[in-house]
Amino acid sequence: MNGTPQHRLAKPDSSISDFVYCFSSIRDLSEMSEGVIIPNGKIDLSFYKTSDGQFYISLLGLETKAKIAPKLNISVFFSINFNPLAVEYILGQPVADILDSGKIMPDGFWDFHIDDLNDFDAFCEKATGKIQSLMCKKTDERKRRLFDIIFKTYGEISIKELSDKIGWKARQINQYFNLQFGISLKAYCSILRFQASLSHIKEGKLFPQLNYYDQSHFIKEIKKLSGASPKELFKNENRRFLQFLVKDME
Length: 250
Hints:
By secondary structure, this protein is of the alpha+beta class. Helices cover about 35% and strands about 15% of the residues. It folds into two domains: about 130 residues; about 110 residues, Orthogonal Bundle (Arc Repressor Mutant, subunit A), CATH 1.10.10.60. The protein contains nine helices and eight strands. The strands form two sheets. The chain has a six-stranded antiparallel β-sheet with strand order 1-2-7-4-5-8. Strands 3-6 form a two-stranded antiparallel ribbon. The longest helix is centred in the last third of the chain and has 18 residues. It is globular. The C terminus is likely disordered.
């Protein structure tokens, strides 16, 4: 990394917290010489301006493996980090077809334009208002409880136990995950456990703190999702693991 990008993170208003994990901002992203995107269990709606003044909005599906961030000359980057529940109730479209990828949204999407990247606080306020305006459909309580439970347990719950708790058949839960997100519940829970492990790794705890079988299994799962060992993540040389940096802001 040649320079030091400026990061900001804003937590959502409680009225939209079922759907939004956070808002984030990175300035001077073009100064990065390399970067690795690692799975975070969120769906990102990104708004960015390139160094030559072009404006784009992109929707990124769930990530299931590490990938090299595209080398774009981005000067300002704002993002809405959505919880999966938002896919059906806010975005109104499945993201199964963009698993490990993304797509450019049409011009004027949600009435956002390049000038909205001038002020992060104003951006968050406008995005909050838009999301609130879309919250007209009653949320299925089973789905709300499903995500509440798996987030609180960091994905460390069996599908049978989850099914019993929310009164929704395991087959139907997996069908919902595959149709909406393109992965199984088990695969999604692995991502949540991985994300929870990042906090421990950041503290230098390079042995499993969660329910991995043993050290070998822990290292294998961390490498599978990040492309790096726990030790490499802890070092985070050149601060290249981009979403790992969010831990600095939480």
